[in-house]
Design goal:
Layout lengths: L4 H17 L8 H7 L1 E2 L16 H18 L5 H22 L4 E2 L3 H14 L1 H50 L3 H29 L5 H18 L1 H26 L2
Antiparallel strand pairs: 1-2
Length: about 260
């Protein structure tokens, strides 16, 4: 079985920096998100913006299709071609979008993911088309609800922990155990900081808009790479489309004659 190197690279490139920079929390600090984003007036994020996200749902909503479409695409292309399509689609789509929208900033890998989706659909339609239908349903009705439940549980747990610590501090102070009370207060501050970051990140994510145009640009660059540089793989995809069309017509004929 072929190892999907590109998918592994993408998973590591998105997960490790995100949770390292967040300190293991579910959300990045606001200043980190702002510094990693990309815009017409902020070119320092030209590549970093593709590997970070505003929140957990944003991360999962891109990571899952990124990995799956990378696996499909790597059946037809070398792993470094898959990586190139992702990076080039994400970069050029974001540059073009920022040129047309100079006041906007971008963060997330969705443009690169769109490039992979378009490329995979062109060279492996039998596998890519079902994914295009099933993945949005999976993400919207399974992944996001489970993620939201987990985040809410985390927030409730930390809120309960803070309340318990407050009571403990009150008890320790009443017993004149000031040193122990100071230690618990310091621990409580860390929990409060974590709660504020995660609650603020959750609110930030829910209010962050998405834009269809940057996704369309990413898909265009992914399709362009296949059309201009991998016509051999495009030809194989064309044969698959023909076979799908034949199967569809046969199914229609079968339904009509029932």
């Amino acid at each position: 079985m072929k190892i999907p190197w590109a998918a592994l690279v993408f998973a590591i490139a998105l997960l490790v920096p995100y949770f390292w920079l967040s300190g293991g929390a579910l959300y990045l600090p606001d200043d980190a998100v702002n510094s990693l984003a990309f815009g017409a007036s902020q070119w320092t994020g030209a590549f970093t913006h593709m590997f970070f996200h505003v929140g957990l749902n944003h991360l999962l909503g891109n990571l899952i299709p990124l990995v799956l479409f990378a696996v499909v695409l790597e059946e037809a292309l070398a792993w470094f071609n898959v990586v190139f399509i992702f990076v080039a689609s994400g970069f050029f789509a974001s540059v073009l979008f920022s040129f047309l929208n100079p006041g906007a900033v971008i963060i997330g890998s969705s443009a690169g993911v769109s490039g992979l989706m378009a490329a995979a659909t062109m060279v492996k339609p039998k596998k890519a088309l079902p994914l295009l239908i099933a993945l949005p349903l999976l993400v919207m009705f399974v992944v996001f609800p489970v993620s939201n439940i987990f985040v809410q549980w985390q927030l409730d747990s930390k809120n309960a922990q803070i309340s318990s610590m407050e009571q403990e501090v009150t008890t320790l102070v009443s017993q004149n155990r000031t040193d122990e009370a100071a230690q618990v207060t310091e621990q409580m501050k860390h929990v409060e900081d974590s709660y504020e970051r995660e609650y603020g990140g959750w609110q930030r994510e829910s209010s962050t808009p998405t834009d269809f145009l940057v996704h369309a640009f990413g898909a265009l660059f992914g399709a362009g790479f296949i059309a201009f540089f991998r016509r051999d793989a495009l030809q194989e995809g064309y044969y698959e489309f023909q076979d799908l069309g034949r199967q569809f017509r046969e199914k229609l004929d079968e339904i009509r004659h029932r």
